[in-house]
């Protein structure tokens, strides 16, 4: 039984071994057939034949006659303006590059390779020109260009040797660009991309290009408009080499869209300035002074300084000229500073009322008569009443001085204007002018000290003829009346002087206050006009600069 089992196991092992051998042989045969089939594939044969070591070397310039130059054609497509860095003075572009040249070492007959006329091979297996962007900020090629494959097209059907090589790759270039910000934010910039070989002169590599950069796939930028992007070919000689170098210069002309800066910088600055200037229109505070206006001016200066710092951070540092926007902020700061200073002057004018002297006549005439009509101001009613009562109207006073024939100032009794007399005299005059006023009710004032007085003469004559026993009483009464009359006159004069003094003080206070108000309104009109002219001038200069750019585009090439 044991021998029988041993024989069965041995047979099974032999059968498994034979099966494995058949499988392995089948796999090997299939692999050899696949390898043979791949080797017979036209594309594989073409690639291997083109890149055979005994036929092609990536280190050698692919031209049979090395005394001739290899022509390289470059085409550029602008895809996007990523960033324009004004402080660093560079521009970042996303472009698509195409380099084309003829490789004389790569030739084949398409009929021998299944009618394959073109193929694609990774760039590292082929010779490519050492094209370099001279004014690139980043030196590493891996950070700027993304090399992939090269398309090879046979020239057999054109009766030529070799193949046409098309090397397409995307690139993100950061290019140095000297920015001219004289008319910022209405500026136009011209940035140039300088392209050529780094080691080969024109005798080895001769560069050509399309006249303009392709903008069909360009994504519009929110801040910049592309005016033109043209490529020019130049030949320069350097001190290192006797042969000239073929240089391609791609000139990118871009113009800034000023709306962002107008809305976010210029208009807010003008509004803040107008708010500061309207401090001249702000009335006095509850304690009748204007100190808050000075605080408003200083606060505005601080706001201007902050805005100017924001602008300066966005512009390159330059000492060759002052940008247009810097002129704007500088002039606005000067205007606000002068306005704050003049506010202090107005405050000083208002405080002169404490000295009790009215303004000079020429100031009263021009600032109380002439100027108020131009700044839409009228004389306060209280001040006009005082001028009428005191007969001190600036216009009449000015006319009396300028024209001697003008009716002079008078303080005599006047039925037409009794208000010009002192208070007690106006009362008596008013009583005497009333119709039906009884003369017997009025007090007849006599001068007892004068012997020529009619009343005294009559009574003296009567007393001389008739010796009345009341003679002593009469003299006592006359003496008492005389003293009372003198006391009333002195009291009336004192009251009149006091009332006039109070009126003069009130007139002085109101005139200086009104003078400060007229100055405020006049300065308000002047400074608002200046701010409007400055803002309009900035816009006009910027627009004129843009028009000059449009009329002389060739100056930017």
From TrEMBL:
Keywords: Glycoprotein, Ion channel, Ion transport, Ligand-gated ion channel, Membrane, Receptor, Signal, Transmembrane, Transmembrane helix, Transport. The keyword Nucleotidyltransferase does not apply. InterPro entries: Neur_chan_lig-bd, Neur_chan_lig-bd_sf, Neur_channel, Neuro-gated_channel_TM_sf, Neuro_actylchol_rec, Neurotrans-gated_channel_TM, Neurotransmitter_ion_chnl_CS. The chain crosses the membrane at residues 259-282, 294-312, 324-349, 361-379, 522-541. Residues 265-538 form the Neurotransmitter-gated ion-channel transmembrane domain. It is a multi-pass membrane protein. One of its GO terms (molecular function) is transmembrane signaling receptor activity. Residues 45-258 form the Neurotransmitter-gated ion-channel ligand-binding domain. It is found in: Cell membrane. Its main location: membrane. Belongs to the ligand-gated ion channel (TC 1.A.9) family. Acetylcholine receptor (TC 1.A.9.1) subfamily. This is Acetylcholine receptor subunit alpha-type deg-3. It comes from Parelaphostrongylus tenuis (Meningeal worm).
């Amino acid at each position: 039984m044991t021998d029988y089992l041993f024989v069965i196991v041995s047979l099974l092992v032999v059968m498994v071994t034979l099966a494995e051998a058949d499988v392995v042989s089948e796999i090997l045969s299939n692999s050899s057939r696949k390898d043979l089939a791949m080797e017979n594939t036209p594309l594989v044969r073409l690639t291997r034949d083109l890149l055979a070591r005994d036929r092609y070397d990536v280190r050698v310039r692919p031209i049979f006659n090395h005394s001739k130059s290899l022509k390289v054609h470059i085409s550029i497509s602008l895809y996007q303006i990523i960033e324009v860095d004004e402080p660093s003075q560079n521009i970042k572009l996303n472009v698509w590059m195409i380099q084309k040249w003829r490789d004389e070492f790569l030739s084949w007959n398409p009929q021998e390779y299944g009618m394959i006329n073109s193929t694609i091979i990774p760039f590292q297996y082929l010779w490519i020109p050492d094209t370099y962007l001279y004014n690139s900020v980043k030196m590493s090629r891996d950070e700027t260009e993304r090399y992939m494959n090269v398309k090879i097209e046979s020239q057999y059907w054109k009766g030529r040797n070799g193949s046409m090589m098309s090397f397409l790759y995307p690139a993100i270039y950061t290019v140095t660009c000297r920015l001219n910000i004289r008319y910022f934010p209405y500026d136009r910039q011209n940035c140039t991309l300088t392209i050529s070989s780094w080691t080969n002169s024109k005798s080895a590599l001769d560069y050509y290009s399309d006249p303009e950069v392709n903008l069909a796939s360009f994504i519009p930028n929110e801040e910049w408009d592309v005016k033109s992007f043209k490529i020019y070919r130049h030949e320069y000689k350097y001190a290192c080499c006797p042969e000239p170098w073929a240089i391609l210069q791609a000139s990118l002309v871009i113009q800034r869209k000023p709306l962002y800066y107008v809305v976010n910088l210029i208009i807010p600055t003008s509004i803040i300035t107008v708010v500061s200037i309207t401090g001249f229109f702000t009335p006095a505070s509850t304690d009748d002074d204007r100190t808050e206006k000075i605080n408003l001016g200083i606060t505005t200066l601080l706001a201007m300084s902050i805005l100017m710092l924001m602008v300066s951070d966005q512009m390159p540092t330059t000492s060759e000229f002052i940008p247009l926007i810097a002129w704007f902020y500088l002039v606005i700061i000067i205007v606000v500073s002068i306005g704050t200073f003049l506010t202090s002057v107005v405050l000083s004018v208002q405080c002169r009322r404490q000295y009790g002297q009215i303004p000079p006549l020429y100031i009263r005439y021009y600032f109380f008569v002439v100027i108020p009509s131009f700044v839409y101001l009228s004389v306060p009613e209280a001040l006009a009443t005082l001028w009428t009562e005191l007969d001190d109207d600036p216009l009449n006073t000015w006319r009396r001085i300028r024209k001697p024939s003008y009716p002079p100032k008078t303080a005599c009794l006047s039925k037409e204007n009794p208000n010009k007399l002192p208070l007690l005299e106006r009362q008596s005059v008013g009583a005497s002018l009333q119709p039906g006023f009884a003369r017997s009710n009025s007090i007849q004032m006599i001068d007892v000290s004068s012997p020529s007085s009619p009343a005294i003469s009559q009574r003296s004559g009567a007393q001389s003829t008739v010796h009345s026993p009341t003679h002593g009483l009469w003299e006592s009464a006359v003496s008492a009346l005389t003293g009372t009359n003198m006391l009333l006159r002195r009291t009336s004069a004192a009251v009149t002087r006091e009332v006039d003094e109070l009126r003069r003080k009130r007139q002085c206070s109101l005139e200086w206050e009104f003078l400060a108000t007229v100055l405020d309104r006049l300065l308000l009109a002047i400074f608002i006009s200046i701010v409007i002219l400055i803002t309009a001038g900035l816009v006009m200069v910027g627009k004129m600069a843009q028009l000059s750019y449009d009329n002389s585009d060739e100056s930017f090439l």
